[in-house]
Amino acid sequence: MSDSGSCHGAAPQTVNRKAGHYVALVGPPNAGKSTLFNRLTGLRQKVANFPGVTVEHHVGRVKDSSGRDLFVVDLPGIYSMTPRSEDEQVTYDVLTGAKESLGLPDGIILILDSTNLQRHLVLAAPVLALGLPTLVVLNMADDLEARGGKVDASALAREIGAPVALISAASGAGVELVVQFLQGTGARPVVPQPRVELPVLPNLPARRRWAGRVGLQAGYTPPAPPEWTRRLDRIFLHPLLGPVVFLVVVLAVFQGIFTGAKPMMDGVESLIGWSGDQIGNLLPAGILRSLLVEGVWAGVGSVVIFLPQILLLFLFIGILEDSGYLARAAVIADRTMSRVGLQGKAFIPLLSAYACAVPAIMATRTIENKRDRLATVLIAPFMTCSARLPVYTLLIAAFVPNTPLLGHLLGLQAAVLLGLYLLGFAAAVGTALLLRSSVLRHAKTTFVMELPAYRRPSVRSLLLRLIDRAVIFLKRAGTVILLVTVVLWVLAHLPYKNGQAPAIEDSIAGQIGRAVEPAIQPLGFNWKIGIGLITSLAAREVIVGTLGTIYGIENAEQDSPPLIESLRKDLTPGGAFALMIFFAFAMQCFSTVAIVRRELGSWAWPAAQFAYMGLLAYVGALATNQIWLHFQ
Amino acid sequence: MIRPSECSIEGSRFKLGNARGKGSVDTGPLRSYPEEAMQLSFKNGAALTLAQLPTGSQAYLERLDLPEEMSQRLMELGFLPGTSVVAAGSAPGGDPRIFRVDGSEIALRRDTACRLYISAEPIPDLDQL
Question: Which of these, A26, A183, A22, A162, lies nearest to A106 by C-alpha position?
Answer without folding.
Answer: A22
